[in-house]
Design a protein that fits this description.
Layout (H helix, E strand, L loop, with lengths): L3 H26 L4 H19 L15 H13 L2 H28 L2 H12 L2 H7 L5 H16 L3 H12 L8 H13 L4 H22 L4 H16 L8 H15 L1 H12 L6 H22 L12 H17 L2 H18 L2 H22 L4 E4 L2 H6 L7 E2 L12 H10 L2 E6 L6 H5 L14 E7 L7 E6 L3
Parallel strand pairs: 1-2, 1-3
Antiparallel strand pairs: 3-5, 4-5
Length: 476
């Protein structure tokens, strides 16, 4: 007869194959979500080009986002030669691994294969997790590394847990809570803290601050860059400067949409029921609580002025095993009701996928129209999706971020700059810190409105993001 460990490995392998098949199918069939996803793709393309030419330097890692996801995808892109697909593959691998970790963690906590299979099915077919596992974005890779760190910590493999947490620290800023979480877990479980764990967890953020200093002359240059964006965002969205009830209610609703409120309730109940505080539940709930505290402080301080459904995904991932355990302890009618309510939350998530598909279709239409018209000229756009989907070379585009300060002084100088750069087209979207929005507020208002500078060619409505307008510059 096969040994139990061999049987367990076989089950894990089957689970991983199923998850891999579903996530790779999603990566192939679903579009990239949100403009941020296309900004990541542009970074991946630029870095892989520099790496292939031997021109990549450590200061190139510096930017608005932490670099590990983009760097790993850029390495993959050296073989694939498709930066969008490379980013989606990295997310799909992380998404499928997350499904396996949820299965394994639930099996460990509940000692029940049916409950582990239920948790696996809930994560496998969760619409938002499926969508962002198919996107070149960091939300799912971060959740995967966070869950892996908890998994290894529960098995007393602290070096592996530290490495996973350290990698997460270079994927998303909120992972820096592991500087406190992992040592605290180690102290709670063993009444000691490893100096190696502390050193690694501190080293990687310090390394990033060093890269920031090398790139900007300021070790806090990364935070200055983010502060500048947040200032522009608050200027553009004036109601976000305070805490308007409608905005806060929407943010809370969006966050719970991703986190699944029933999962959060189960995690809260597990904390209150002292007899069920196993080390597995302590580890997952402590990590989730630290992340909630991080987001709360960021939100009230306006360091993160808006919450999105994808921010809640990491809590859904961490909470699923605890939810499965609580189902085991509930009376059967209560457990069935909780399961039904958790599945109903999926129904609320489902409309996001058609919206993203419609958004992608609008971006594609404008990108194709631009590619057919542009000839040897250039285009100004702050829409990364159009830049990527057009498949035009990067040097054919201008954007607000790279516009010289002299050209950004007023509308006349900006218009002169466009013509000097042989720019014949403008793809216009209403977004913060966009020079066309600042200088030409009458654009993007109505289908029939042109102005003295621009002639409207096409417009596409977008249900998930801003509408997209394609203009041709009039002859000056």
């Amino acid at each position: 007869m096969p040994r139990p460990n061999a049987e367990a490995r076989s089950v894990w392998f089957i689970v991983w194959l199923v998850a891999l098949g579903v996530r790779f199918a999603a990566a192939w069939l679903l579009p990239n979500a949100e403009q941020d996803g296309y900004s990541y793709v542009e970074i991946i393309a630029a870095w892989s080009a520099k790496i292939s030419h031997g021109d990549f330097h450590i200061v190139d890692l510096f930017g608005f986002w932490l670099p590990l996801f983009q760097f790993f995808a850029a390495i993959l892109n050296l073989a694939i030669h498709d930066p969008l697909l490379s980013g989606k593959i990295v997310s799909a691998l992380a998404g499928s691994t997350t499904c396996v970790l949820v299965f394994a963690l639930t099996k460990r906590i509940t000692q029940s294969l049916p409950l582990a299979s239920m948790a696996f099915a809930l994560i496998l077919f969760n619409p938002l997790h499926l969508l962002y596992s198919a996107a070149a974005m960091t939300d799912v890779p971060f959740g995967c590394l966070a869950l892996a760190a908890i998994w290894f910590a529960m098995r007393d493999r602290w070096m592996a847990a530290t490495i996973c947490a350290g990698l997460a620290e270079l994927v998303r800023l909120e992972a820096w809570v592991f500087i406190l979480v992992l040592p605290l877990l180690q102290f709670l479980f063993h009444r000691r803290v490893s100096w190696m764990t502390m050193s690694i967890l501190l080293l990687l953020p310090l390394l990033w601050l060093g890269i920031s200093h090398a790139a900007t002359g300021d070790c806090l240059g990364y935070f200055a860059k983010r502060d500048a964006y947040q200032h522009n965002f608050l200027e553009f969205h004036s109601t976000r400067r305070g805490f308007a009830f409608a905005d806060v209610a929407q943010d809370l609703d969006y966050f719970l949409l991703g986190a699944n409120p029933i999962i959060l309730v189960a995690m809260t109940m597990s904390i209150l029921r002292a007899k069920h505080r196993s080390r597995e539940i302590i580890a997952t709930t402590l990590c989730a609580a630290a992340l909630v505290a991080f987001w709360f402080l960021a939100y009230v301080s306006k360091r993160q002025p808006v919450l999105l459904p994808r921010y809640g995904l990491v809590f859904f991932v961490l909470g699923l095993p605890v939810f499965a355990f609580m189902l085991k302890t509930f009376p059967r009618p209560v457990a069935i009701l909780a399961l039904i309510l958790s599945i109903y939350a999926f129904v609320r998530q489902s409309p996001n996928i058609p919206k993203v598909i419609a958004d992608h279709r609008a971006q594609q239409h404008i990108a194709r129209a631009l590619a057919a018209l542009i000839g040897e000229s250039r285009c100004f756009t702050d829409d990364p999706a159009v830049r990527v989907l057009s498949r035009l070379p990067a040097d054919r585009f201008l954007r607000s971020e790279t516009t010289p300060s002299s050209a950004a002084a007023d509308a006349v100088r900006f218009d002169t700059y466009l013509r000097e750069q042989h720019t014949d087209y403008l793809v216009f979207i209403r977004t913060e810190d966009s020079l066309p929005v600042k200088f030409f507020p009458d654009l993007g208002v109505d289908r029939k409105i042109d102005n003295d500078n621009f002639e409207l060619i096409a417009r596409e409505r977008s249900p998930f993001g801003p509408d997209i307008w394609l203009y041709r510059l009039r002859n000056g």
